[in-house]
Specification:
Oligomer: single chain
Radius of gyration: 22 Å
Shape: globular
Structural class: mainly alpha
Strand content: under 5%
Low-confidence stretches: 303-307
Largest sheet: none
Distance between the termini: 27 Å
Order of helices and strands: HHHHHHHHHHHHH
Number of domains: 4
Helix content: 40-55%
Number of helices: 13
Mean pLDDT: 83
């Protein structure tokens, strides 16, 4: 036991942070996983008591020696070759079609989501454009694929995937992903390991639109929530300060300590998968009906009996 570990476990306090230290952890994460971390990347590899969500909050709020006003994506975009998806320039359908015309003029083919980088737009990829078209990001209307756009605007043949999908196959790939990475895949988890040509974004799109032999109206998050008990971030129940304090008092009665973000699952929560770390993050971010700008320690403190 060290003083830092004692304070982290019992008071939610961790040591100071510097951008250089965070970048070193991000480099290690990238080397191990092939991806740069986000606030949803869970615990920091090899660093006890640290999580990317807590680091992101410290960067935003100016805690633990940091100046504030930043985030994990902003820090990586400024110091590493990583694009911050929240600050990307807006797109128009006309712009996307113009890029496709240039691709067709050069190659004789219409681009697909797997066509790689867009030569006339440095930093852009057809995969990112496909995602923005479907999800309605970067000023685009949403609900459309690149193939559908080009079929509508240029009469290009709609691209049909010859390989059908089944729910059992998707779940098997998801199980393998979790076994390899420790977490369930999401739409932006990139290519599916062991399945050349497949991506988690394309699979979620097929589940939503009913493509490739699947029924419409689902998504990757919904499927994993229903069949694997994974938590769907878009379907989490709302929280209240009163509820959190009641759970904290129950935790105190059972353990003799007040909960911290490192205290693990919330035993008293009616829905499985609730954790003190998730509650701490929701308090800081203002998610799930909470006001934001708070922390678990600040909310629990009024529940402590006065001496």
């Amino acid at each position: 036991m060290t003083l830092a570990r004692l304070l982290a476990e019992h008071r939610g306090l961790r040591g100071p942070l510097t951008p250089e230290r965070i970048l070193a952890w991000a480099d290690a994460h990238h080397a191990a996983t092939g991806r740069w971390p986000t606030r949803a990347s869970g615990r920091v590899r090899g660093v006890e008591g640290e999580s990317w969500a807590a680091i992101d909050l410290a960067l935003l709020r100016g805690r633990r020696g940091l100046p504030g006003g930043s985030s994990v994506p902003r820090l990586l975009a400024a110091s590493r070759p990583v694009r911050n998806v929240h600050t990307l320039p807006r797109l128009t359908l006309e712009q996307v079609v113009a890029w496709a015309d240039a691709y067709h003029a050069k190659t004789g083919r219409w681009p697909r989501s797997r066509s790689g980088r867009i030569a006339v737009a440095p930093g852009e990829t057809w995969s990112a454009v496909e995602s923005a078209l479907f999800q309605g990001l970067r000023g685009l209307p949403g609900g459309m694929t690149l193939s559908q756009l080009l079929a509508e605007r240029r009469g290009a043949p709609a691209i049909q995937t010859s390989r059908p999908l089944t729910v059992d196959q998707i779940l098997a790939w998801a199980d393998a992903h979790r076994a390899a990475t420790g977490h369930w895949p999401v739409e932006d988890s990139g290519p599916v390991s062991g399945a050349p040509g497949e991506s988690w974004g394309a699979i979620s799109l097929a589940l939503t639109k009913g493509l490739r032999g699947l029924s419409a109206g689902s998504s990757l998050a919904r499927l994993l929530a229903e069949r694997r008990g994974a938590r769907n971030p878009k379907g989490l129940p709302r929280l209240t300060i009163k509820q959190i304090r009641a759970w904290a008092r129950a935790y105190r009665s059972a353990t003799g300590r007040w909960p911290t973000p490192q205290s693990g699952p919330v035993a008293e929560a009616p829905a499985p998968g609730e954790t003190w770390a998730a509650i701490h993050s929701a308090l800081g971010r203002g998610h799930r009906g909470l006001p934001g700008g708070l922390s678990l320690a600040r909310v629990v403190r009024p529940a402590r009996p006065r001496r």
